Every structure is written in C-alpha cells, then in structure tokens.
C-alpha cells in the first residue's frame, strides 16, 4: 500500500469543511479533478469510503469522521516542522486560517493583511468570512478548522477558546426617516414592542446581545426578516419594511440620510474579540498574525 500523502489529507479536509468537491477544490486552489482523484486514492489506500456522495453535497462517513481530527493533527504537525526549520534560519513560514465576521468596526482588516504579507511573505493567510455568524467560527476554531477568528460575542470566556476584546461600540436603533421614533433623542426597549424587526440569524453576535437585551426588558420582539448583510438590512429599513439594530459604526451615510440612528436607553454594546484556541498549541505564524491584529486594534 502506498503511503498517504499530505496533499491527499489537505484535499480531504477542504472537501470535508466545505461539504463539496467543487468548493473544496476552490479552497485548495486546484482543479476539481485533482481533488477527486486525490480523495479517491486516499480512500483506496485506507480501504474505506470517507464521503457519502449526494447529488449536490457530500457528507462524511463514520470512517471520514474518525479521520478528520487525525488529518488536522498530521497537517498541523507538518506545519510545525516547517516552522521549526524556517525559524532556525530566522524566517517565518506557515499557513494561518483566519475567520472573520462581516463587519470589523474600525479595524482595517485589508490593510492589516497587506502589511502582514509584506513583512512575512512566506506566510499564507487564508481568510474566511462567516455567513453563519460567530457561533460557527467558534466551532471551527475548537475543531481546528480555523487558527484564529474575529468574533462578536458578549461572553468573557468560552470553553476551548481564549478571547481578547479589541473593540466595543454601542448598538443603535435604525429606522426609516418617516418613522415616529426617528426624531426621538433616545428610545427604550419597551417602546419597541410590536414593531416588525429586520435582524440577523441566531448565532450572530449582535443577535445574541439584542435578544438578551429584549429578554431582560421582558419585551417580545417580532422578527419578520432575517438577513446576513448590513447593506440589505439597511435597504429594507429604508423602504419601511421594519426596524433594525446595528453597531453604530455600521450605519453609514449622512446623518440626515434616509435612515435615522437612535440611541437605545439601555445602552446595549457590540464587541469584537480575537478568538484563539485554548489549550491547543498555536503555531508561530498564527501567533505573529494574532499579535498584528492586537497591535492594529490598539493603534
């Protein structure tokens, strides 16, 4: 039996984490046929089917589930070996998988990554923006699918994760300019009972803060629409289809524009935190990127 090759495990992971050979190939940066061939060869060498192939998706078999953490361990160990050899020469190499939320407040993530790439050209940063919210990024961090993540959570600590706050800002009510609350100096949560809301899915950090604030006030919220994009939510608000609650910095446009920003009396706050795995060992490249994120946040 031929030896299992690192690229086979890498392609297996890409398919497992994306649920698709097409998306897995896109993540790996190769053609789909190369991924399919590598996974098929891996299955032949291990004597087991690793995926159940469905029409539009794939899912792991029991054997695939058993291989998944071991494959991550092997690839992590190989990265650590490369880092150690490069470190002996005074170089920084490796791959860092960074998860991010869609809005990062004042943190210039693109500028940060550009500067980091200039300083460390042999480090590959794979940026993954979540469309499922902070809860998914935290799960991926714990499983090893991510090395670092920018998340939004009110929690100070979570199992398997170390959190460092890098930004905090108030949440504000966003409503159409012709809404009765648009001219209010401040609004209390009790005043929002019965209003139709445009919100973000369960699992998003801002949704968790807002749900908690309403529950604490004993107010039931009518969520009519769920979206995963601030721009779309704003457009729906502009057209009078409901109210929303945004981080203050996410409400762009002039103060006298088509939407009004109204402070909330209870002062709920939205936070961004850098999440790192704990107690899992962190690679030197991931440590360097984490330091760059924290430095940029303090600047």
Number of helices: 9
> What proportion of the residues is helical, as a percent range?
40-55%
Oligomer: single chain
- Give the distance, in angstroms, between the N- and C-terminal Cα atoms: 55 Å
Q: Which structural class matches the secondary elements?
A: alpha/beta
Report the CATH C-level class of the domain at 167-270: Alpha Beta
Coarse morphology: globular
Largest sheet: 7 strands, mixed
Global mean pLDDT:
90
Rounded Rg: 22 Å
Query: How much strand content do the residues show?
Result: 15-25%
For CATH, the homologous superfamily of the domain at 167-270 is named as Periplasmic binding protein-like II
CATH architecture of the domain at 167-270: 3-Layer(aba) Sandwich
CATH fold description of the domain at 167-270 = D-Maltodextrin-Binding Protein, domain 2
Overall description:
The chain is an alpha/beta fold. Among the domains are: 1-71, Arc Repressor Mutant, subunit A (Orthogonal Bundle), CATH 1.10.10.10; 167-270, 3-Layer(aba) Sandwich (D-Maltodextrin-Binding Protein, domain 2), CATH 3.40.190.10. The chain has helices at residues 6-18, 21-28, 32-46, 62-88, 109-119, 134-143, 205-216, 230-238, 284-298; strands spanning 51-53, 58-60, 94-100, 123-129, 148-151, 161-176, 196-199, 222-226, 244-247, 259-263, 269-277. The strands form three sheets. Strands 3, 4, 5, 6, 9, 10 and 11 form a seven-stranded mixed beta sheet that branches. Strands 1-2 form a two-stranded antiparallel sheet. The model has no long low-confidence stretch (mean pLDDT 90).
């Amino acid at each position: 039996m031929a030896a299992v090759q690192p690229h086979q495990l890498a392609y297996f992971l890409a398919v497992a984490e994306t649920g698709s050979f097409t998306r897995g190939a896109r993540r790996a940066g190769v053609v789909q046929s190369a991924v399919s061939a590598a996974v098929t060869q891996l299955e032949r060498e291990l004597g087991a089917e690793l995926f159940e192939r469905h029409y539009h998706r794939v899912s792991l078999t029991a054997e695939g589930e058993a291989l998944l953490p071991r494959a991550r361990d092997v690839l992590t160990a190989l990265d650590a070996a490369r880092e150690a050899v490069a470190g002996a020469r005074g170089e920084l190499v490796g791959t860092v998988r960074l998860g991010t939320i869609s809005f990062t407040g004042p943190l210039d993530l693109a500028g940060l990554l550009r500067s980091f790439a200039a300083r460390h050209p042999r480090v590959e940063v794979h940026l993954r923006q979540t469309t499922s919210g902070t809860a998914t990024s935290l799960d991926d961090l714990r499983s090893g699918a991510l090395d670092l993540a920018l998340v939004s959570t009110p929690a100070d600590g979570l199992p398997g994760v170390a959190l460092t706050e890098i930004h905090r800002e108030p949440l504000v009510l966003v409503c159409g300019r012709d809404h009765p609350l648009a001219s209010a100096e401040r609004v209390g949560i009790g005043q929002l009972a019965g209003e139709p809301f445009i919100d973000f899915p369960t699992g998003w950090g801002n949704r968790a803060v807002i749900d908690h604030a309403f529950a604490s006030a004993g107010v039931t919220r009518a969520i009519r629409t769920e979206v995963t994009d601030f721009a779309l939510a704003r457009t729906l608000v502009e057209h009078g289809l409901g109210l929303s609650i945004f981080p203050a910095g996410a409400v762009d446009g002039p103060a006298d524009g088509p939407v009004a920003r109204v402070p909330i009396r209870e002062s709920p706050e939205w936070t961004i935190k850098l999440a790192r795995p704990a107690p899992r060992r962190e690679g030197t490249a991931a440590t360097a990127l984490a330091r760059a994120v924290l430095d940029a946040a303090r600047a």
